Amino acid sequence: MKYFSTRNSSKKVSSVDAILKGLADDGGLYVPETIPKIDIELLEGKNYKEIALEIFKLYLTDFTDVQLKKMIDSAYSDQFDIENLVDVKKVDKQFVLELFHGPTLAFKDMALSILPYFMVEAKKIKDINEKIVILTATSGDTGKAALEGFKDVPGIEIIVFYPNEGVSDVQKLQMLTTEGTNTHVVAINGNFDDAQRSVKEAFSNRELRKLLEEDGYVFSSANSINIGRLIPQIVYYFYAYFEMVKKGGIIKGDSIKISVPTGNFGNILAAYYAKEMGLPVEKLICASNENNILTDFINTGQYDTNRDFVKTISPSMDILVSSNLERFIHQVSDGNEQLIKDKMNNLKENKKFDIEEKSVEKIKKIMIADFVTEEEILKTIKTCFEKTGYLLDPHTAVAYSVSENVGENILVVSTASPYKFGDSILKGFDTNADELSVEDINLEISKLCKISVPKSLVNISKKEIRHHRICGINEIEKTIEEILKVGDKND
């Protein structure tokens, strides 16, 4: 399987090159030359790791089956708190896919646990001696999952930028207390879009890349702009389908709808890839919070970031520039790379673009989109709990709420443990969490969901803060140089 940029199909690279580079030199995102088909009958009865192997064999053809199996076994180990890695539960009329049983309590663990293994093995295959610098912008969950995955991995440095006032207290503490000699966490005085844009600009800055190369460093990414992050996310949709069959929710062959709380568009894009591969999916449901730019785009074809950025209680979705949308538009426009260049240039220069009506109609056949307000999120959390005893986190509540009235056979993607956003959840139960410590909030959540506080969060506020850097929006490249100690120190 070869890969090429969404902006230039003439230059094809191997899967190991795509993983190591992260972002294409032209600023585009790597996509597979074709989305492979799979006979899902072959996956029936397999466990999560076995399904992962079958999926990876189709996309990551530069690795041997033995290499893939070894990486899967190493990544998906006892750091997950349940044997099957993920769980599927019936909640009222819907099924909830729990993706938060990994070390950082968020769905990003499913991909970021294995991405470091992909990179280390890819370095061996390519005989690369340079140190890889993982450069990542996070809206909360990617940061900690990436830090945990790459912590103390030889030959890799990881730098995470997060919006200083744009993540939950638990998310911030998780990042700032990360150990490891190769981990670096930087707060920026801006929002996630600012961080993501600046990181992409750093990737594309030839002078910075040359400066790093002279000191033996090369850039890569742990964001879902990296195809090695995206492919592992396909796996859990196939696994979840057979769990729904096993639990009597559907009959094998039935089509399902998948509702995804969507920010950077990576998770729902993985569901789209699964659909194209042969998973029986009737509709994808793109669920947004009040930063509802994707709702508008899917319903009208207009993508306009000239709007207020809203800080919400579902901060991982507080995004106005969804990177993976570029891959999706590339797919529905039949690989029209000139169109991609034009639209992305319009987005950069005018902060907006629109697509043709025929592409809008094609998108509407694939997915539907809606959003919910802050008030509706809190109401959904409380109502669902009172009716079923199941506690949703604010992101999952968005997907749950949007999908309540769109029919049957619905799989709601649960992207985070309620413990990560306990203070927000308590608002829905008329509890003022402002004066409570993180530990007190965790105890209140434990009483509600009747699940013990995860080990990683016990006394988290008492752990040593190891990262103290803060920078401005326009200081990211300078900060990278300082962290890596490259360039002229006397300049």
Short description:
This protein has helices spanning 15-21, 48-59, 65-75, 109-112, 115-126, 141-150, 169-176, 192-204, 206-214, 227-246, 266-277, 293-300, 325-332, 337-350, 357-366, 374-388, 394-402, 422-427, 438-449, 476-484, and strands at residues 3-5, 8-13, 30-32, 87-91, 94-98, 131-137, 156-163, 183-188, 217-220, 256-261, 281-288, 302-304, 352-354, 367-371, 410-414, 469-471.
Q: Can you tell me the CATH class of the domain at 87-106 and 228-457?
A: Alpha Beta
Question: Per CATH, what is the topology of the domain at 87-106 and 228-457?
Answer: Rossmann fold
Largest sheet, spatial ordering of strands: 4-5-15-10-11-14
Low-confidence stretches: none
Helix fraction by DSSP (H/I, runs of at least 4): 40-55%
Query: Roughly how many Å apart are the termini?
Result: 45 Å
Q: Look at the helices and sheets and give the structural class.
A: alpha/beta
Give the total of beta strands. Answer: 16
SS summary, helix count: 20
- Principal-axis shape equals globular
Radius of gyration: 21 Å
The overall pLDDT, averaged over residues, is 94
Describe the overall structure.
The chain has a domain at 87-106 and 228-457: Rossmann fold. The protein contains 20 helices and 16 strands. The chain has helices at residues 15-21, 48-59, 65-75, 109-112, 115-126, 141-150, 169-176, 192-204, 206-214, 227-246, 266-277, 293-300, 325-332, 337-350, 357-366, 374-388, 394-402, 422-427, 438-449, 476-484; strands at 3-5, 8-13, 30-32, 87-91, 94-98, 131-137, 156-163, 183-188, 217-220, 256-261, 281-288, 302-304, 352-354, 367-371, 410-414, 469-471. The strands form 4 sheets. It has a 6-stranded mixed beta sheet, with helices on both faces. The protein has a 5-stranded parallel beta sheet with strand order 9-6-7-8-16, sandwiched between helices. Strands 2-1-3 form a 3-stranded antiparallel beta sheet. Strand 10 (256-261), helix 11 and strand 11 (281-288) form a beta-alpha-beta unit. Helix 1 (15-21) packs across helix 5 (115-126), helix 2 (48-59) packs across helix 3 (65-75) and helix 2 (48-59) packs across helix 10. The longest helix has 20 residues, at 227-246. The relative contact order is 0.14. The mean pLDDT is 94.
